[in-house]
Specification:
The first copy, chain A, has 276 residues and is α+β, with helices and mostly antiparallel strands. Chain A is 42% helix and 22% strand. In chain A, strands 4-1-3-2-5-6 form a six-stranded antiparallel β-sheet, with helices on both faces. Chains A and B meet through helix 1, helix 4, strand 4, helix 6 and helix 8 of A and helix 1, helix 4, strand 4, helix 6 and helix 8 of B.
C-alpha cells in the first residue's frame, strides 16, 4: 500500500523561506538601463576567428539578439550596442516585472543569450559555435533625460575611442606589416588626431569614411512604419475583392549614427519622455 | 583632412554617469541562492510537444544546462531543479563577482539560457527549437544551514506535490479516458493519500515506484572521483612504458533522491559549511 | 608585572566584520527627503496637556527643532512640517555624508530629537518634559521637481484635511458642548464643504480666517537677507570711526502659506534646481 | 461664504508619491546591529570640559541614554558602548518595526539623543549643556553568533587600544609634565607592552588595576531579578495583612567586563540565540 505523508503540510512548514527574498523595485520615474557585457569575449573572439578589428558577423549577431530582446519587451524604448556590449533602456514609467531589477536584468540577459546561440547560424553559417557563451548584466537608474543621454553618449564615446584605436592598430599590422608589439609601441601616447593622421598619411585611410556601424555602433529604436497588405473584403451587395490596406505598425529599426549631438533626438522625439 | 575632436576628453565628460550604479554586494557569510524559472514554459512545452506529465528530454536538457553553469562556477556547491526551474547555491564564503548580486544572477541566467539552446539537439534530436526561450532569475540569501536546507526542502516538497498531482491527472486522462475537465473535477479537494489511492486501486500504479527523477527532481553536487588514466613514463635506465595513474578529480554528479531528510546531508557532509 | 596581549593584533582579527556593512548611497541627481514622525505623540500630547486642536507651543518647538537641523545642514533647501511630523529636503546634488541614506536620516532624527528636548523650556516654560520623546524617520528619493512638489503638496493636503477635521471636531466639543462620540458621529461622512458650513453657520467661524500656521503648516527655506552692522574702521591718516557695513547673509525663514500652487515657487525660484 | 476645494480629492492626486518609498527590510534570521557615533564629539568634549582621559559623567550619561533606548525596545538583547559610541543588538528574530532598517536606526538615534539631553543634568548638575548634540547611526547585519561576537570583540578591542593610549598619553602630560607634542612623540610606534611599561615603571600605575569601566566599556543586558514587594492581601475569613510577594522581573543590567573571551557568554547563555 503506498504511503504518503501530508506533503502539503510539509511544504507549508518550509514556506517561511520566501520571506528572505528582498524587494528590489526600481525607483519610480527613472529610466532603467540594463547593460550586458560579454564574458571572456576576447578569448571567445579568438576561438571563433573573429576578423580584426571588427567582425561584421559578430556585430550582426549582437544586433539580432538585441532585436529579439526588444521585440519581446515593448517598454524598451532604445537600445545601444558596440563591440560585445549592449544597453537596453526601459521607459521611465514602465511597470514591466513590477520594475523589479532582478527580473528585468535576468530576463534581458537570458533572452539575449539564448538568442545569440539560436541565431548563430544565420550569421556564421557552417562555422560551429564551440561552446555556449555568457553575458553578465547590471541595472543602472537615470533620473533625467540629460543623465540618460549622457549615459548613451558615454557608451558611444567609448565605441569611438576603441574603434579608432583598433582600426589604427590592426592597419599597422595588416597593412603596415608591424608586429603587435610594434603597433602597440607606435600608438602609445598618441591622441585621436595622431591616429587619424597615421591612417591618412601612411595608409590613405580617411577614418571618417570608415563604416558607420564600426564608428558609431548600433542604435535600435521603435518606429512607426506604414505597411500595406492586401486583404480580401466582402461588402454587402458587392463581390468579394482584394483591397490594399495600410496599417501603421511599430517596428524596431537600426541606426548607425551619432547619438551624442542633438540631431538624432530631435528627429526621434518619442524616444524620451519629459522630465516631469 | 580628417578631423577629430578630442574624444577622450568628450568621454571623460560623460563618465560621471558611472556613479549612478549602486552597490548590490550580498551580505557576507550567507548562502547565495540564484533561482531561475522558465518564462511562459507552459506555452513553450505545448509548442514543442513535451510529453505529459513529464518529458525526460526536457528534464535532461535542464540538468545539462545546470551542469554547464556549475562547471563554470566551482563555488556553486549544490543545485536543485525540477520542472522548468533550477536553483543554484553559492557557498557562504564565495567571492565570485565580488558577491555582486546582479553579476551572479545575470551570469547564471545567461549561461543557463545559452546552454539550453546549445544542447537542445543533444536531447531533442531533429525536432527543431522554434524560438529562443527565456528564464528569469532572482537572488535570495540564507544565513544558516537550517534556512538553506529548508529552502531546498521547500522546492522538493513543491516538486512532490506537483508531480503527484500531474501523475494522477494525466493517468486519469491517458489511461482512464477522462477529459481534462473531468480529471480536474476528480482531483479537486483530494489529499496526497487520495491521489495515491486512485493511482493504486484504479491503475495499479504504486506512485513510490515511479521514476525518482520525476518524484524527487535533480540534485547536482561536486564529488571527488578517482580517475585512472594510463600515462607513458620514461625513467632513467628503463624503457618507456605505460603506467596507470590514479588522480582524484572533482566532478558534478546528479542525484534523484530525498534531500528533505538528514541522510543525504550526512552522506555528503562537504556540501554545507559550518554555521560560524 | 602588567601583561598585555597584542591588542592591535587582536583587533585586526575582528576587523573583517566591517565588510558586513552595506552601501546605501542615494541615487545621484534625486532629491533626498527625510521625514520624521513623532512616536506615540497622541499619548505624548495628552500627558503634556497640549491644547486642542492645535498647541502653538508644541508647533513652535517643532519648528525650532527643524530650524536647528537646517542651520547645521545647509544642503537642506526646504523643510515642511505640520502636526508631529517634519520633512527635510536635501538638494539633488548634495554630497553630505556621501549621500549615505543611513547617515542622513539618523543625523536628522538625532539632531531634531536632541533639539526638541533642548528647546523645550523655551516654549513650555516651567511645565516639565516628563520623558524623552522619540521620532522615527525614513528616506525617500524624488527624481524630478514635479515629483518633489507633489510630495510636499501631499503633506500640505494632509495638513489641510486633518486640521479642518480637528477644528470642526473640537469646536463642536468646546463651543457646541458635544461629547467626543457625538462630535465623531456628527462629522462622519461629511465633506470639506460640510465642515466649513458647520463652522460658519453654527459657530460663525470662517475657516479661511483661521491661523495660517494651523491651516498651512510651516515651510522653512533659506533666504538672503541684507544685514547692516556697524564696524569700527581705521584708515591711514584718519581717525577711527564707526561705519555701517551691509552684508548679505543666508538665514532660515518660516512661511505659513500655500505651497501646492505655483506662486510660492515662482517667488522663491532658488529652492528647486533644474531637471537636468 | 467659505469655499473649499475638494481637499480629499486633491490629496489623492498626490498620493502616488508614496510609491517612491523603498523597502529596506532587514534579512531574516540575522542579528541587527545599530551603532551610534557622536558627531564632532571631540569639540563637544572640549567645550563641555570633559576630564581627560575619561569623563565619568559623560560615560554615565551615555550609559543612561542607552539604558533608556533598551527599556523601550525589549528586543535589544545586548548593547555595548565606549567613548562616544554605542551599539545596540536586536535579536535575530525580532519583528520590531517590521525589521525596517530605517525605522530601527532612526528610532534608536532619536531616543538616544533626546535621552542624552533629558538626563544631562543628572550627570552634569549645574554645568549647562551648550547646544543640542548629534549622533549618527548605521545598521549592520550579522548572520551568525560568531560574526556577532566578533563584532562586539572588535568594538571592545578598539576600546582597549584607545584607552591604553589615552591613559599613557594623559599620564605623561598630567603627571609627567610633558606637552601634548612631547607625549605624542614619546608614544609614537610603541606597542601595548611599551605603554604598560611606561605607566608601570615611570608612574607606578598598573594598567590592569585601572577602572574596568574605562578599560572594558559598558555592556548592557537584560537580566531576571527577583524582586520582593509587600502586598496587602485579604483572604476570606481572614484579616487583611501585608505579605511579601516575590516576582521575577527583567531589568537592564550593566557590566564592565571582558566580552571577547567565552566566560561572559557562558554565564549569560540567553543573550544569543542558536545558529539555526
Amino acid at each position: 500500500r503506498p504511503f504518503s505523508s501530508s506533503s502539503a503540510m510539509a511544504k507549508s512548514k518550509f514556506e517561511y523561506v520566501r520571506s528572505f527574498e528582498t524587494d528590489d523595485t526600481c525607483l519610480r520615474n527613472c529610466y532603467i538601463v540594463v547593460r550586458l557585457d560579454g564574458r571572456n569575449f576576447h578569448k571567445f573572439a579568438e576561438q571563433h576567428h573573429f576578423t580584426k578589428p571588427n567582425d561584421d558577423r559578430a556585430l550582426g549577431l549582437m544586433s539580432k539578439s538585441a532585436h529579439s530582446v526588444m521585440e519581446g519587451l515593448e517598454d524598451i524604448t532604445i537600445a545601444y550596442g558596440q563591440s560585445d556590449e549592449f544597453s537596453f533602456v526601459f521607459k521611465r514609467t514602465t511597470t514591466w516585472f513590477k520594475r523589479r531589477a532582478s527580473k528585468l536584468m535576468t530576463h534581458v540577459a537570458s533572452q539575449f543569450s539564448s538568442s545569440y546561440v539560436f541565431y548563430w547560424k544565420e550569421f556564421f553559417g557552417e562555422q560551429p559555435l564551440l561552446y555556449p557563451p555568457g553575458f553578465d548584466g547590471r541595472v543602472v537608474l537615470y533620473p533625467t533625460n540629460r543623465n540618460l543621454r549622457d549615459y548613451l553618449s558615454w557608451r558611444q564615446a567609448d565605441c569611438h575611442i576603441n574603434n579608432l584605436y583598433n582600426t589604427a592598430f590592426w592597419t599597422l599590422i595588416q597593412k603596415g606589416g608591424l608586429t603587435t608589439t610594434q603597433a602597440e609601441d607606435r600608438l602609445k601616447g598618441t591622441l585621436a588626431s595622431d591616429k587619424n593622421e597615421i591612417l591618412f598619411s601612411e595608409f590613405d585611410i580617411n577614418y571618417n569614411n570608415e563604416s558607420a556601424l564600426h564608428r558609431k555602433g548600433t542604435t535600435l529604436i521603435w518606429e512607426k512604419r506604414d505597411e500595406t497588405v492586401s486583404k480580401r473584403i466582402k461588402r454587402p451587395n458587392e463581390e468579394e475583392k482584394q483591397v490594399p490596406v495600410t496599417r501603421s505598425r511599430r517596428k524596431v529599426e537600426a541606426y548607425h549614427c551619432d547619438i551624442i549631438g542633438d540631431q538624432f533626438w530631435e528627429e526621434h522625439p518619442d524616444v524620451l519622455e519629459n522630465d516631469t
